[in-house]
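Form 7-S
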Amino acid sequence: MLKLIKSIFKKKQQPLEDSNPESDYNRNLLRTKILKYLQELEHEKTIIEEQKSVLTYLLNNPLQIFPYHFNSKYNEEDVEVFTDAETGLSYVLLDDKKLFFKRGLTKQAIQHMHNFLLKEQDPASPHRYLTHEFNIEQNDVIVDVGSAEGNFALQNIDKAKKIYLFETNPDWIEALEATFKPWSDKIEIINKFVSDKDDVHNITLDTFCKEMGKIDFLKIDVDGAEQQLLDGSKNTLASQVAKLAICTYHLQDDEITFDNILKDNAFKTSYSNGYMIFIYDNLQPPYIRRGLIRAIKTA
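Output:
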């Protein structure tokens, strides 16, 4: 599973434009399959408005992970990359705060990665974690599982009382430490995978919460290992979490499976708006997937 996670993560960082004829052919073939599927729904008059918007986009545009017009707002070349004189690490500015990247990445790679992060959190994106109604509150305790570059935590650092980041890659830990140096009293970086077992490299949320206590906001994006995380979080989900956002696009049935688990634990759930086309999985009908679930504890 860890090899799978690393493989998917590497693929997600690669620009769609940097492709070979074979991958271009595969994407065009996938686009054709999705169009045919959605057009059949339209013909049968069973298509819903959100599916129809994907159909309209794909009829006139190439395949995109986010099949929406907000893509055109973002240009990689507009991303300014700086170098920190003290550490030698590269960084970009996010809400006027320095977001550092791990060593060894080219300027172009950083531009692509950050541009993709901006798309992910566009107000119209199906991958957007927060809304005006579903938000971080002042003095919240946040647990960010799958912190990656740390952009979610950085954008909410001023409100948070404490943020726990889970990261195991030493190169990214260095970057995260640089990013959050001005808020070192608020940040704790934990060098473990969050999973369904406790050992040298893994920890369950149930074990973590025994020591840490209640979580005001839990964010989960672990590239396909969400089910294992939930399996190790039964007590946590029952009584320790007020709000959570969990990604549902990595695997075919995640959106339904996770929705049922959360409802069984007295969460009121809602999907983010729209759909994603996660081209790095072996997509099958219905091809398009919900980006994430937002959940609020009701009892």
